[in-house]
Structures are given as structure tokens and as C-alpha cells.
Amino acid sequence: MNSKFMQKFIEIAGRIGSQRHLVAVRDGFVAIMPLIIVGSLAILINNFPPFGNFNFVEWMNGIFGDGNWQTVGGSIWNGTFAILGLLVSFSIAYNLAKSYDVDGLSAGLISAAGFIMLVPWTEDGAGLTAAWLGTQGLFVGIIIALLVTELFRILINSNLTIKMPEGVPDGVTRSFKALVPAVIILIILGFFQALMNVFAEQSIFEVIFNAIQEPLQGLGNTLPAAMVVSFLNHLLWFFGLHGTNIIGSVIEPVYLPLIEQNLDLFKSGMSAFDVPNIVTKPFLDSFVFMGGSGTTIALLIAVFIVIRRERNHPYRQVAKLSAPAGLFNINEPVIFGLPIVLNPVMLIPFILIPVTLTITSYIALATGIVPRTVAILPWTTPPILSGYLVTGGSWRGIGLQVFNLVLAVIMYIPFILAGARTLKRNKGE
């Protein structure tokens, strides 16, 4: 653990995890996550599958008329998923500007305005092309947010601002301070849009989507990519680094459009078995990271199975304290309490089990045994409930979770036994 290679790895991973722009991207997505979850649940309710003899959709149609009540969910979708690119362009710019101690609100507003400027109009000129406002415009939203904020920071620090006299309210002072930078930035974006129209004859959205976003989404929706994400996440956690946060800024722009496509097709009436994308963020959260990274809810169950009689055993005490939080996928108590971090005994299962569950889950969804994911849930949603909801209300989702948990418990047990023996030996018992 003290080798130069490991030390260098920890140093590099730590730098990546604290890199200003990646942190801004991560925090930008975290900020809009409540809207994403609400939009996802609205579509899930609008298309909730029959439960035995009870058909929720028909029951609601009988009360409010065919489809009338679904307008509510559709409106929520329009205000969340349908404008995801726009929301991201604001939230990332806001967080990046705040990290520089410059006006985050002004940076966010200028970024959002710049994003709208670059969105192409419909062929009849009646309005903006809605497709680019959503997840198809995510990468442009991220790029615009980062570039606009950096330029805004440079202009502010260069004193290209209008200074107001003392006594003027702070809100007015900030507004006028951002005026000149806003004018310069928006003029630059306007010229850029004009050049794109003349020389490329297509929008920057189409260029970025075809060159970057679509290939990355195709790569991300594969088993090898999912295994790499799972492996890196847990390797970082093993060294005490927050793997979920470090890689989150990289995978969110790839996996959000994939679940959005599933949701959109599910909303239009397609079965959850037939939607195209297998690997999404809910796929990992619901079927791999049960109890948190490392599938640690299975680790807790394994501890209770192995150490039944020794009530005061350290492993059992940690498991008892960690179990309530673990049910809601909060696993820092067990990761740092057992510990898993820098514990050689736990390295193999902590990394191997999630990768194995990624494989079993991918096979189950790819072969049609289990429906594919069509909902985004709060990350604290307990297992079993999450398996049911994320697959559009299918008991097969629960079945896959139970299968994965049993498999993970079986894989953890030998290492719990080894760890307990090592603990006794170290104590001289």
C-alpha cells in the first residue's frame, strides 16, 4: 500500500476529485437532480403498469377522463427533462463562478442566455428546436457553461466593469458590474453563431452531438464500459476517495441522455422490455450499488450471518450501527468503520462483487428476463422498492435485486470469516 505507484495513484485521483471544473460539473448535476427525479416519477405515474387486477391508468381515466390527468405529468416533464441542457448550462456556470468568488448568479444567467442563442430555430421559424434544449444539448450546455464562466471571470478581474457609487443597493451594483462582461460575451457568441450558419450550415449542437455525445453514449451503453465505471468507482473508494463524486462528473453527461431516451419512449407507450438502453445511472444505482458503493448492504447481512453469537464483536457492532443508514444506501459508516478503506482483506470482494453484479444485471436486462430502467429515483430509495419502481413497476426488478444480494452475501462471507480471524490473531486471542 506504500508503494510509489499507489501513492502516485492516490495523488492523481485526489487531484482529479478536487479539480475545479469537474467539481463544478458534478455540483451542477447534483443541483438539478431534484428536478430530474420529479420529472422521472411524473412519467412513471403517467404510465404505471397494472398491479394484479387493478389498472391505475384506467382508474384515473375513469375519474378525470381519458388522458386529461396525464397533462400534469406531461407539464412536469416539460419543465424538467425537456429543458435539461438549459438547466445544466445555468447550474454549472453558477457553481464554477462561485468557486472563483465571482458573481455566480450573473455567470449562470449569461451562460443560459448564451445557450439559448445557439439553439437552432425550427424550420418554420415559430420557435426553438425543443430537442436541443433537453439531454441532446447536455454537452453543449456543459461547454458553454465552462467557457462563458472563464471568460466572465477574466473580464471581471480585468476591471472591465461599471462601478457604481457607494450607497447603491448591492443587487444593482452586481447587475451593473456584470453588464460589460455580458455584452462582450453575448456579442462573441452571436458572431460565433453567425459563422456556424455561414460556414458549417448547421448548429454547434448538431456538430457536438454527432462528433462527441452520440459516440460516447453508444460506448457507455456497453457491458465493458459499465464494468470499468464500477471498477474505478470502488478502487477510488478503497483508497478513501469519494469514487462516486470523482467519476460522477464524467458519467452523468453520458448516462442521463440514455435514461431520458428510455423515459421518453416509455412515456409514448413502449414497454420497459423494449426500450433500447441497458446501462444507465439507475441501472447501477438499483442493481449494483445496493446499500451504497460495494453493495455494502450484502456485507452487513454477511456479518450478521457469520457473527451471530459474539454480540460484542467489532464487526457486529459496526454492522448494527451501519444497518439503518445502509438501508437507504448511506454506507460511509461501514466503509470507514469496519473499515473497508485500505483494508487488504476487503479489497477483493469490495471491487469484485460490484463488477460481478454489473455482469449479472446486464445479462438479465439484455436477455429480456428483467425490464430495462425507465425511472430515476432518489439515491436513498431502499433496495426492493427501487427495483420495482426503476423497471416501471415490475416484480422482476425485485427478483434481480434479491438474486444479486444473495450472490453478494455468498461472496462476502469468506472474506468476513478471514477478516474476523485476522482480528482475533491481531488481538492475540
From TrEMBL:
Cellular component terms per the entry's GO annotation: plasma membrane
Residues annotated as transmembrane: 21-45, 76-97, 104-121, 133-156, 176-196, 287-307, 345-370, 398-420
GO molecular function: protein-N(PI)-phosphohistidine-sugar phosphotransferase activity
Topology versus the membrane: Multi-pass membrane protein
Protein's name according to its UniProt entry: Permease IIC component
Function as written in the Swiss-Prot or TrEMBL entry: The phosphoenolpyruvate-dependent sugar phosphotransferase system (PTS), a major carbohydrate active -transport system, catalyzes the phosphorylation of incoming sugar substrates concomitant with their translocation across the cell membrane.
Location(s) in or outside the cell: Cell membrane
Keyword Disulfide bond: no
Organism per entry: Virgibacillus massiliensis
UniProt KW Membrane keyword: yes
Main location: membrane
Annotated PTS EIIC type-3 domain residues: 5-415
One example of a Gene Ontology biological process annotation: phosphoenolpyruvate-dependent sugar phosphotransferase system
